Amino acid sequence: MSPLSPPASPLAADSVSSVVTVTPEAMTELAALRDTEPDADRLGLRLEIISQPGEDFKYDLSFDVVTKAAFTDEVRTHTVTTESGDTITLKVIIPAASLDLLEGATLDHTAGAGLVIRNPNKPKAPVVEGLVNDDPLSAEVESIVATEVNPALAAHGGFVTYVGHDTEGTAYLTMGGGCHGCSMSRMTMLEGVQTMIVEALPAIERVRDLTDHTSGENPYYH
Question: Residues near 207 by Cβ (< 8 Å), separated by ≥ 6?
Answer without folding.
Answer: 170, 171, 172, 173, 189, 190, 193, 194, 197, 198
